[in-house]
């Protein structure tokens, strides 16, 4: 990861982290920061992070052999024979990575927008970045670089040309959003929604709410928030915020609202009403939930001085990120709604509602397990089975250990057992799905990231 146009040095890392220089030159300049020995570039510093499966200290020799000029470690490591390689010892390498990112962010005091919520973070981030790009040079975190490793690495890409940053913040336990906000020091925060996700670590919906609310606690009265007026738990959180509040919504009164929502050839259009006026918007996206993402992005962009016409232009040109309600058309005019990036009960419900809205052809759902739901997992999957039937799904394909519970829910709701197929892997599901498809069918493919449901689409490409 390059730090383009700026100087990072060993001395700077020592100052930011409070680390001790075991060997090497404190004045040595560095080309960037990396936490993966496989992708390190010559001249970078390697942070030896410890994860659930691997300890980065084991890969220090590999990082050095690939050109690392410095390493940040917690304990003594072997295999560094070149005394010109700087070795910095710290108490906690992950903490130090965040401290360095915060130091770097403070050296670049540009406006920064932080986005959190149970669903819609990435799409809102991408929408907002595209709107802001009409006027500014924008930094955003790539893909899912939204955790305690990815966000600091994203921040460390800031350079003197950047004028605004847009970062999404994810978490699966309490305290993570607080730490991310302390690192990034956002000026504007966006709260998309709160729903039952990561219950394995957060226990309850109230726990999710408290964890998301950490962003507001860190920002304080000097910041601004953009919040969903249609989500009761988000509204409750917003009332505690001491700074400027701006709402968006569809059902309840809001500063930024959408009316006349309609579907045009499967895509969503609406009338955008904001403090600066109103304009019609026609998105290249499917699903009414995308309106919330667009409203949130528009509200935040307006705070940063972007005009209504620029907002309209960017939103209407916006294309969805890969595997997030992405529309893929295969042979026989088979339309695939590829929402395989991730899944939780709320996003699964929204995806099924979108499938329900589609006109023409049969509706087919291909669903994988939803992870990190703790004690709620079984009931959540049964409830999704109920929702499948309500959405008008004619054929249901399932993958995962919890698939029988989705099937149970679907059958309880009246679905024919003969229309339900539980597969052992992507290839088997793809094979049987390809044989059952008819011209004009709509197929929703969705599951948690670990399920890698997009693999089914690749099987279909080979067979159709």
Q: What is the element layout, followed by pairings?
A:
Elements: E1 8-9, H1 10-17, E2 20-23, E3 29-30, E4 32-34, E5 44-47, H2 60-65, E6 70-73, E7 86-89, H3 93-106, E8 112-116, H4 121-132, E9 138-140, H5 150-155, E10 164-168, H6 176-184, E11 188-191, H7 199-202, H8 205-219, E12 224-228, H9 232-238, E13 244-249, E14 256-264, E15 267-274, E16 277-282, H10 290-303, H11 308-317, E17 326-330, E18 334-339, H12 345-357, E19 363-368, H13 377-390, E20 395-399, H14 403-412, E21 420-423, H15 426-436, E22 442-446, H16 454-463
Parallel strand pairs: 4-5, 5-6, 6-7, 8-10, 8-11, 9-10, 11-12, 12-13, 13-14, 18-22, 19-20, 19-22, 20-21
Antiparallel strand pairs: 1-3, 2-7, 14-15, 15-16, 17-18
User: Helical percent range?
Assistant: 25-40%
Counting structural domains, the number is: 3
- By DSSP (H or I, 4+ residues per run), the number of helices equals 16
Q: What's the count of strands?
A: 22
| Major β-sheet strand ordering | 9-10-8-11-12-13-14-15-16
Question: Which stretches of 5+ consecutive residues score pLDDT under 50?
Answer: none
Question: What is the distance, rounded to the nearest whole angstrom, between the alpha carbons of the first and last residues?
Answer: 39 Å
Determine the CATH superfamily of the largest domain: Mur-like, catalytic domain
| CATH domain fold name of the largest domain | UDP-N-acetylmuramoyl-L-alanine:D-glutamate ligase
């Amino acid at each position: 990861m390059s730090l383009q146009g700026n100087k990072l040095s060993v001395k700077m890392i020592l100052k930011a982290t409070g680390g001790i220089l075991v060997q090497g030159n404190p004045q040595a300049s560095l080309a960037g920061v990396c936490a993966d020995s496989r992708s390190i570039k010559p001249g970078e510093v390697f942070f030896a992070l410890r994860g659930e499966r691997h300890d980065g200290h084991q890969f220090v020799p590999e990082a050095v052999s690939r050109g690392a000029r410095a390493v940040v470690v917690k304990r003594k490591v072997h295999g560094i024979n070149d005394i010109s390689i700087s070795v910095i010892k710290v108490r906690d390498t992950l903490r130090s990575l965040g401290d360095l990112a915060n130091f770097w962010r403070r050296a670049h005091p540009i406006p920064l927008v932080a986005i959190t919520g149970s669903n819609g973070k990435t799409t809102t981030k991408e929408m907002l970045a595209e709107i802001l790009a009409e006027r500014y040079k924008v930094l955003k975190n790539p893909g899912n670089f939204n955790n305690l490793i990815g966000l600091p690495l994203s921040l460390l890409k800031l350079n003197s040309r950047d004028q605004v940053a847009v970062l999404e913040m994810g978490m699966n336990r309490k305290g993570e959003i607080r730490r991310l906000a302390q690192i990034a020091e956002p000026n504007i925060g966006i709260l998309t929604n709160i729903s039952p996700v990561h219950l394995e670590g957060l226990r309850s919906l109230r726990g999710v709410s408290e964890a998301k609310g950490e962003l507001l606690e860190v920002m304080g009265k000097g910041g601004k928030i953009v919040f969903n007026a249609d989500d009761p738990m988000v509204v409750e959180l917003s009332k505690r915020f001491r700074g400027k509040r701006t709402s968006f919504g569809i059902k309840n009164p809001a500063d930024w609202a959408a009316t006349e929502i309609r579907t045009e050839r499967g895509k969503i259009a609406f009338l955008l009403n904001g403090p600066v006026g109103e304009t019609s918007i026609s998105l290249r996206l499917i699903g009414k939930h995308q309106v919330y993402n667009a409203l949130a992005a528009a509200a935040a962009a307006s705070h940063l001085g972007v005009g209504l016409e620029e907002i309209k232009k960017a939103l209407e040109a916006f294309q969805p990120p890969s595997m997030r309600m992405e529309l893929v058309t295969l042979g026989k005019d088979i339309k695939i709604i590829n929402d395989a990036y991730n899944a939780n009960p709320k996003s699964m419900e929204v995806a099924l509602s979108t499938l329900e809205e589609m006109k023409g052809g049969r509706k087919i759902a291909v669903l994988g397990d939803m992870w990190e739901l703790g004690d709620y997992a079984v009931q959540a999957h049964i409830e999704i089975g109920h929702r499948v039937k309500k959405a008008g799904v004619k054929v249901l394909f399932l993958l995962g250990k919890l698939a029988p519970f989705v099937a149970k829910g679907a059958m309880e709701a009246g679905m024919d057992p003969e229309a339900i197929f539980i597969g052992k892997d992507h290839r088997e599901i793809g094979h049987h799905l390809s044989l059952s498809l008819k011209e004009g069918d709509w197929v929703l493919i969705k599951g948690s990231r670990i399920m890698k449901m997009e693999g089914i689409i690749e099987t279909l490409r080979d067979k159709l």
